[in-house]
Amino acid sequence: MAPFILYLYDGETMFEKPGISVIIPTYNRAELLLRAVDSVQKQTYDNWELVIVDDGSRDETKESIKKLNDSRITYIKNEKNMGAAASRNRGVSAAKFDYIAFLDSDDVWRENKLEKQMVYMNKFPYFGMIYCPFLNHYLDGHELVVPNHQTGEREGWIQNTLLINNVIGTPTMLIKKDVFKENGGFDISLRALEDWDFALRVSWNTQIGFLPEILVDAYQTSGSISYDGGGYYEARCKMIALNLDYLQEIGMFDMLVMDLFKDAEQRGILEPVRNILMISIEKYHSKL
Q1: Are strands 143-146 and 134-137 parallel, antiparallel or unpaired?
Q2: Side-chain half-sphere CA neighbours of 51 within 13 A
Q3: What is the reported pTM?
Q4: Which domains does the chain have, with CATH numbers?
Q5: Could you tell me the mean pLDDT of each successive run of 10 residues in the chain, 288 residues long?
Q6: Three-state SS sequence of the chain
Q7: Which site among 108, 142, 164, 254 is 20 to 30 Å from 5 CA-CA?
Q8: What angle do CA 136, 48, 190 make, to 5 degrees?
Q9: First-to-last CA distance in the chain?
Q10: 213 touches 132 (CB < 8 A)
């Protein structure tokens, strides 16, 4: 294996490359996982380690990773299926470097993803996290760039944007490990939207940088997690409840609730969602 090139040029100065710990959670995706791993191994940024957290797979995942014979890869297996949020948290706990990047086992990084993000982080060190757009590839062949037309600021203190729209995909994140830990990691109680919830919590405590170039390809597969309606509404109601005071202060509470209820009504579940929101407010808003 060639020695690491320890310095990088950001257009103005040379800087030493910090190590990046890449975390991939996976479950019964041995073949797809190898595609994701390959995209990590092909990165132009070479100072990384890869922590694969196998969430109780019953396929050939372990054997496939062993065949790669790459000393930069650490393999961890959960004794039972714990979910992506818990698996990512476990991967971060095992990480040895001060920067963390996430990749899902059915997605792919473009080869300069880590390099471009680390250069951007070096130029603007006050950012606690950097993200970028990703290209969503759907089973029916159509493609969609995220974020696209959503309103709101993309960079800086972007909590107002994140209160409305989920614009940060987990595989696009490059985050300082101390920022990850200070914000409690991913919420393992959520069945959906744990990436959105995490990004929103981070946005209250640090500025977030946006590199406006597609560096990630996300693929919908037959094994992708299906839409969890109950989990979605539970997570969304929790986010609204936790930020209730601020939402009322800036006049966004009624708009978000109206949009939530309109969507629920179209699905024929308005009353259950009303109840979820009220329970969430009672649980998470201490003044009520």
Answers
A1: antiparallel
A2: 22
A3: 0.91
A4: 7-219 (3.90.550.10), 229-284 (no CATH)
A5: 57 82 95 95 96 94 91 95 96 98 97 97 96 94 90 93 95 98 96 95 98 95 62 95 95 96 95 95 72
A6: CCCCCCEEECCCCEEECCCEEEEEEECCCHHHHHHHHHHHHCCCCCCEEEEEEECCCCCCHHHHHHHHCCCCEEEEECCCCCCHHHHHHHHHHHCCCCEEEECCCCEEECCCHHHHHHHHHHHCCCEEEEECCEEEECCCCCEEEECCCCCCCCCECCHHHHHHCCCCCHHHCEEEHHHHHHCCCCCCCCCCCHHHHHHHHHHCCCEEEECCCCCEEEECCCCCCCCCHHHHHHHHHHHHHHCHHHHHHCCCHHHHHHHHHHHHHHCCCHHHHHHHHHHHHHHHCCCC
A7: 108
A8: 50
A9: 60
A10: yes
In whole angstroms, give the CA distance from residue 136 to residue 142.
8
CA-closest candidate to residue 52, choices 69, 77, 28: 77
Q: Which pairing describes strands 134-137 and 216-219: parallel, antiparallel, or unpaired? A: parallel
Residues β-bridged to residue 144: 136
Q: What type of residue sits at position 101?
A: A
